[in-house]
Specification:
alpha+beta; 261 residues; three-stranded antiparallel β-sheet; single chain
């Protein structure tokens, strides 16, 4: 179920991770082998569709990474631009899927297994011998906050004008990501903010990892503020030196789905 089918057209790959449990009035389910996910209320089907891959909630973080980001990381390692955009409701596991870090004082095999997509990408790229740099930004509407500001000597600029810091090893990278997570949590409304991580890879490659603000938090805003929030993310992701078409197309899809909520 973690094998992603090649897209049938020139479009982004769409992967769905289904969280376990029932909502107050509807149930979400999936069939990973058939790549289908659905939601129903009683006998009424609210939503049903087939995706490039469907990941069940019981899947280990390492297999989630294989299904979600491994191909994008490999593309960045080869000098290209890889992009992963993670979106979902406030109650979903989108935050931990992307940003999970080891518990304080953790270690060993379990610590390695618990890593989310961002930390796992950094650790694996370093283990493959790549030289990396890292930036992390929180976008609260149109206001960017550099989550690594003051943490070291900058080696360049990342998205949103953030400082890009050299990453010496996995331990240093996890420490930077932990501080970024702590600062992001201090936002007045974290669920309404976007997070943009950029991993620069030697040879000119880049891996963009984006956690979009919770779709229900965006949908709860008035139309003007909702559009401003999504437009800010789209604008900050654009770079004169590259054309992240996948990111722009996914954001257009997000705008459409948010309006339907």
């Amino acid at each position: 179920p973690t094998q992603i089918m090649p897209p049938k057209s020139n479009r982004p790959t769409v992967v769905v991770k289904v969280d376990a449990g029932e909502g107050s009035s509807s149930v979400v389910g999936c069939n990973a082998d058939e790549r289908k996910a659905w939601a129903h209320r009683g006998a009424q089907i609210l939503f049903s569709s087939t995706f490039d891959a469907v990941l069940p909630s019981s899947l280990k973080p390492s297999l989630v990474y294989a299904g979600v980001a491994e191909a994008a990381a490999a593309h960045a390692a080869g000098g290209g631009l890889g992009c992963v955009i993670c979106m979902g409701l406030q109650a979903s596991s989108k935050g931990s899927t992307l940003g999970q870090l080891p518990a304080a004082g953790g270690g060993g095999a379990r610590e390695a297994e618990e890593l989310g997509v961002v930390a796992r990408a950094v650790v694996r790229l370093l283990a493959a011998g790549h030289t990396l740099s890292l930036s992390a930004v929180q976008l609260y509407f149109e206001m960017p906050t550099d989550l690594l500001d003051g943490d070291g000597e900058a080696v360049g600029d990342g998205p949103c004008g953030a400082r890009r810091l050299a990453v010496a090893d996995g331990g240093a990278a996890l420490a930077l990501l932990a501080r970024a997570a702590e600062r992001a949590a201090a936002c007045a409304q974290p669920s309404s903010a976007h997070l943009v991580y950029s991993i620069g890879v030697d040879g000119g490659g880049e891996l963009l990892l984006v956690e979009v603000a919770a779709t229900d938090a965006i949908a709860a805003l008035d139309k003007t503020r909702a559009n401003a929030s999504l437009h800010a993310l789209q604008r900050w992701l654009k770079k004169p030196s590259s054309k992240p078409a996948d990111a722009e197309l996914l954001l257009m899809m997000l705008k459409k789905k948010t309006r339907e909520c």
